[in-house]
């Protein structure tokens, strides 16, 4: 599992937020007016246009809002979890644990639980699960 | 029923007269769009590009600040300084190195090496002042951490420069330059960002694949210092005598393999059957991480000083040089070593043995140079 380090150093510009919310509010007003116009005889075409404008405005402002939030979410440094493998060269006993500061490959560590021989760090690595994208090449 | 009739009427109206009495508005809008895009199309493009660069700049600023924070925290944690190291770190992040003049290129490698040595000494001295309680390994790791933070600071400042210049001049071509290379710059910055924690903690990184090959070959054999921050062990492999060179670990360090190869060649009066260099190399998109490939030439990156020295030595004694590389991308090279790369190390050792069997005879002497940053890798 990877830990994520992030902080609130970025914020959405208040102007952008204002524009988004004004557009959203106007879109909602357009939708309400569309419903009213629908029930007014002879105003059906107007209702259609208002409906179109309302939906488009609402969709656009929601999309922009989500995009801005997504960008903020992406602002983080992923710290991968690194595994240390410890091995006993005499009896072959192996154990793994999370990496600790000071570990290095070929460092002698604690004694083996089975044969009391000093154990050795033989591997330090991270595992990355990658989604394989299918390409023709 | 009433609603249904109204809907049908509306539908037919829309189908027959697409925009009815409002069609003039649309015509006007069309002309307005046409003229706006004709006269202001480039400006609109410029603003869109500026916005894109601005988004990346936000991210770069965040990464740069995190880098600085990690560096300061690590210094405080490991180095136990008496005073707050923040001001010194900020000064360090602004360091620059001026490369030697190349109008007359003769002797430039020596000059470059000298400048790099001065830089290295200066960095080491500064780290010692910032973090007096560190041992050699920790000091090397801290130096690497600070160098990664410094690289991030530099990237941020260059992108900011072009962004502000573009904003000031509103020149599409200035902004375009930076916008076009932005994806590659961001990849590099993200790679350095993931390197920060690895360097601070002393974890092996992908670039250390070559050093790990050498470490696995020399483990259990006596070592001696052959050049600055470089060790060598004499190892019997397939009936041949192999001089295996690597940077001295486990601190973050690349050593001077060029000097190491030169010294061994001179000690043996050039009687070396072959040199095999092992290093991590950048893969092309579409290639697998941890793929092992083989070729000829000096497999070593960096500013070129070591490559030059190795090439000089092999030319003097006419020694063949082979290279084994482990492929990875820039992000893998400076972030904690991936399992695929770790597993590829054994494949690279097998390939080295194959080269030795094919290209040399029993009793021959060979040099194996494991190139790369040996952070988190002992010997």
Explain what the structure shows.
- The complex is a heterodimer of chains A (137) and B (379).
- Chain A is an alpha+beta fold.
- Chain A is built from two helices and six strands; from the N terminus they run βααβββββ.
- In chain A, α1 packs antiparallel against α2 (44-74).
- Mean pLDDT of chain A is 81; it is low at 1-10.
- Chain B has a seven-stranded mixed beta sheet.
- Chain B has eleven helices and seven strands.
- In chain B, a hairpin with a 2-residue loop joins β2 and β3 (240-247).
- In chain B, α2 (23-79) runs antiparallel to α5.
- Chain B has 379 residues and is an alpha/beta fold.
- The A-B interface holds A 5, 7, 9-10, 38, 44-45, 47-49, 71, 74-75, 77-80, 82, 99, 101-107, 123-128, 135, 137 and B 6-7, 9-10, 13-14, 20, 22, 55, 58-59, 61-63, 65-66, 193-194, 196-198, 201-204, 212, 215, 219, 249-250, 286, 335-342, 376-379.
Q: How would you describe the shape of chain A?
A: rod-shaped
- The sequence of SSEs of chain A as H and E is EHHEEEEE
Mean pLDDT of chain A: 81
Rg of chain A, alpha carbons: 30 Å
Structural class of chain B: alpha/beta
Strand content of chain A: 15-25%
What is the overall number of helices of chain B?
Answer: 11
Low-confidence parts of chain B, pLDDT < 50 over ≥5 residues?
A: none
- Described by its quaternary structure, the protein is heterodimer
Helix content of chain B: 55-70%
Largest sheet of chain B: 7 strands, mixed
Strand order of the largest sheet of chain A: 4-3-6-5
The span between the termini of chain B is 87 Å
Radius of gyration of chain B: 29 Å
- Beta-strand proportion of chain B: 5-15%
């Amino acid at each position: 599992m990877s830990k994520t380090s992030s902080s609130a150093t970025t914020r959405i510009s208040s102007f952008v937020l204002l524009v988004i919310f004004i557009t959203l509010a106007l879109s909602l007003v357009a939708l309400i007016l569309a419903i009213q116009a629908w029930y007014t005889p002879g105003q059906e075409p107007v209702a259609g246009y208002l409906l179109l404008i309302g939906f488009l405005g609402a969709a656009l402002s929601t999309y922009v809002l989500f995009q801005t939030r997504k960008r903020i979410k992406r602002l983080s440094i992923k710290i991968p979890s690194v595994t240390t493998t410890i091995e006993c060269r005499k009896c072959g006993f192996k154990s793994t644990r999370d990496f600790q500061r000071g570990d290095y490959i070929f460092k002698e560590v604690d004694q083996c639980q089975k044969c009391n021989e000093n154990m050795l760090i033989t591997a330090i690595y991270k595992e990355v699960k990658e989604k394989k994208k299918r390409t023709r090449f | 029923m009433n609603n249904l009739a109204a809907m049908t009427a509306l539908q037919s109206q829309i189908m027959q007269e697409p925009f009815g009495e409002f069609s003039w508005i649309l015509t006007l809008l069309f002309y307005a769009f046409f003229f706006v895009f004709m006269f202001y199309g480039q400006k609109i493009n410029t603003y869109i590009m500026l916005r894109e660069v601005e988004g990346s700049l936000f991210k770069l600023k965040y990464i740069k600040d995190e880098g600085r924070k990690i560096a300061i925290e690590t210094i405080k944690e490991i180095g136990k300084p008496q005073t707050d190291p923040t001001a010194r770190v900020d000064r360090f992040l602004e360091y620059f190195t001026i490369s030697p003049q190349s109008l007359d290129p003769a002797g430039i490698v020596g000059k470059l090496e000298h400048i790099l040595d001065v830089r290295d000494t200066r960095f080491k001295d500064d780290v010692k002042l910032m973090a007096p309680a560190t041992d050699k390994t920790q000091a090397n790791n801290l130096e690497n951490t600070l160098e990664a933070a410094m690289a991030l600071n530099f990237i941020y400042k260059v992108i900011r420069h072009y962004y502000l210049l573009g904003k000031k001049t509103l020149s599409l071509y200035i902004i375009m330059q930076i916008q076009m290379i932005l994806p590659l710059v961001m990849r590099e910055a993200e790679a350095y960002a993931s390197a920060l924690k690895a360097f601070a903690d002393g974890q092996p990184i992908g670039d250390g694949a070559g050093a790990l090959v050498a470490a696995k070959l020399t483990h259990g054999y006596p070592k001696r210092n052959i050049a600055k921050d470089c060790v060598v062990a004499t190892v019997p492999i397939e009936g041949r005598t192999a001089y295996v060179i690597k940077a001295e670990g486990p601190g973050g360090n690349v050593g001077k393999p060029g000097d190491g190869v030169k010294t061994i060649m001179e000690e043996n009066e050039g009687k070396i059957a072959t040199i095999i260099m092992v290093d991590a190399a950048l893969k092309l998109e579409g290639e697998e991480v941890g793929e092992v490939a083989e070729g000829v030439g000096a497999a070593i990156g960096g500013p070129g000083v070591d490559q030059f020295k190795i090439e000089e030595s092999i030319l003097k004694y006419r020694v063949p040089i082979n290279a084994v590389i482990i492929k990875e991308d820039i992000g893998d090279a400076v972030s904690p070593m991936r399992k695929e790369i770790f597993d590829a190390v054994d494949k690279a050792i097998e390939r080295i043995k194959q080269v030795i069997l094919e290209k040399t005879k029993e009793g021959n002497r060979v040099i194996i140079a494991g190139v790369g940053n040996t952070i988190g890798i002992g010997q």
